[in-house]
Write a structure and sequence with these properties.
The protein is α+β, with helices and mostly antiparallel strands and about 450 residues long. The protein folds into two domains: about 220 residues, no CATH class; about 220 residues, SGNH hydrolase (Rossmann fold), CATH 3.40.50.1110. The chain contains nine helices and 21 strands. The strands form six sheets. The protein has a five-stranded antiparallel β-sheet, covered by helices on one side. It has a five-stranded parallel β-sheet with strand order 18-17-19-20-21, sandwiched between helices. A four-stranded antiparallel β-sheet has the order 3-4-5-6, with no helix packed on it. The two termini are about 45 Å apart.
């Protein structure tokens, strides 16, 4: 470890002594961090140096002891964030200080579960990124928001390994916007991947038992916490843009699992797909940048979505657009909660008045979208919407809100490609297939784009 004194043009050597088998290290504003061959992470105080002097180093202290044998604890109601004693590291291959969030980004290389020289040589998708939040002593995911929300924990049966999104390689962190340059080893790809905390905050993953994938989703409840507590949206303007665009404008989608998952492939997200489709239209037609955050709750009632909107308005980024899903799975739409009855007309009008008041804060456009016709429990979908759904949509129209009903436009498409749901149906399987999610997002974009484009044309971001 060398200390460069630019004023004197001299190099001073600082020893890393005290930690054996150092695999990676980095320097923060006031600390030195190192990871050893056992996956233990150490920290050492680094004093600020006066001009012409060399900084002083304190003694090494264990920051992370790496005592857990589980590299990714999963199970029903188990997931991020993990405490330091709940999750382990296999092989730290890189470590970086992240100034935006005052913590450490760690690249962990997962081992194969079988003795196979060919797989050991060829299987490279083994890197998992973990963010160590030093203030809260917790481990968070660091991800790019993807339509397929389980891409960061795919089970490779042949190799007996949880495969990751990142291939083996080398990384460099851009402190200005917390993006990564990732140079893949043995491949010809150099990637630039955006802020992983922002990626975590934007996801609306759903955690459920009734899927056919072998691992439970571990990135679900953590998304809202990251947005509220770390506020990665504060750095939206700092991002590198290959094509500079106006904005960014922020959309927030409040929905149920119908908009966030697929029974066969777990979290294959309509919300994430809509961000890509609508964002593409706004980008190349209008030169506008759109960021969509997704807040998903199981069988979310209308009351739940309004409460989630109210919470968002109080502690998160002001939205330019709000999407609210309307569905009636299990008769939940008008429910006030377990054993609390159903919304009457006065209460329903009160919720609409609350939406109007919340939207008025930032001049937000509120868009209701009919997802009820997509739901089907153990059978095919494309059925008529329920009376409760029609009641809410009609009231929304009367109040001047935007209402999107893509069912008619989608019917012909789905009759040509494949039905909406997942065959063969299993118990409680009522979510869309991946092709249907893609077609639905395209149909919704075709309906939404003209109105959203006109709304954003003369608008400044909220």
């Amino acid at each position: 470890l060398l200390w460069l004194d630019p004023g004197e043009g001299r190099l001073h050597e600082l020893t890393l002594g005290g930690v054996e088998d150092v695999r990676s290290f980095d320097v923060g504003p006031d600390r030195l961090f190192a990871a050893d061959g056992q996956g233990v992470i150490w920290e050492r105080q680094l004093s600020q140096a006066e001009p012409g002097q060399v900084p002083r180093l304190g003694g090494w202290k264990r920051l992370f002891r790496n005592k857990s044998r589980s590299l990714l604890p999963d199970g029903f109601q188990v997931g991020f964030p993990y405490g330091y004693d709940e999750v382990g590291l296999a092989e730290v291959v890189d470590l970086r200080w992240v100034e935006h969030y005052r913590g450490l980004l760690v690249a962990d290389r997962f081992p194969l579960g079988v003795d196979d020289p060919r797989l050991e040589r060829e299987l490279s998708e083994r890197i998992h990124l973990r963010f160590f939040d030093l203030d809260e002593a917790r481990v968070l995911p660091w991800i790019k928001p993807m339509v397929h929300g389980d891409v960061y924990q795919l089970w490779n049966e042949q190799a007996q390994i949880i495969a990751g999104y990142h291939h083996e390689g080398s990384l460099a962190l851009v402190q200005h916007d917390a993006s990564l340059f990732w140079l893949e080893r043995g491949r010809s790809r150099l990637l630039r991947i955006g802020d992983g905390m922002l990626g975590t905050a934007k996801t609306g993953n759903h955690h459920a038992r009734n899927t056919t994938v072998p691992l439970f989703q571990t990135i679900w409840k953590v998304s809202g916490r990251v947005e509220r507590q770390l506020r990665p949206d504060r750095h939206l303007d700092a991002r590198h843009e290959y094509l500079p665009r106006r904005g960014p404008f922020v959309a927030v989608m409040f929905n149920s699992s119908l908009s966030s998952m697929s029974d066969r492939f777990s979290n294959y997200s309509f919300g994430r797909r809509l961000e890509l489709e609508l964002g593409r239209e706004l980008g190349y037609r209008d030169g506008v940048r759109l960021d969509l955050f997704q807040v998903s709750s199981g069988a979310a009632s209308f009351l739940t979505n309004v409460q989630k909107l109210e919470n968002w308005m109080s502690d998160s980024v002001p939205p330019d657009l709000v999407f609210i899903e309307i569905h009636d799975f299990g008769g939940a739409l008008l429910s006030k909660g377990k054993d609390k009855g159903r919304l009457d007309d006065r209460e329903l009008s009160g919720l609409f008045a609350k939406i109007e008041a919340l939207a008025a804060r930032y001049g937000t456009m509120v868009i209701f979208y009919d997802h009820a016709w997509m739901e089907a429990n153990g059978r095919e979908a494309m059925r008529n919407s329920s009376p409760g759904v029609r009641k809410i949509l009609e009231q929304a129209k009367q109040l001047g809100f935007v209402v999107l009903e893509p069912g008619d436009a989608l019917l012909a498409k789905l009759l040509t490609d494949s039905p909406w749901g997942n065959q063969a149906f299993g118990p409680n399987q009522h979510h869309g297939a991946v092709w249907s999610v893609n077609l639905s997002a395209a149909a919704m974009t075709a309906l939404a784009y003209p109105q959203v484009s006109a709304f954003l044309r003369e608008r400044e971001p909220a």
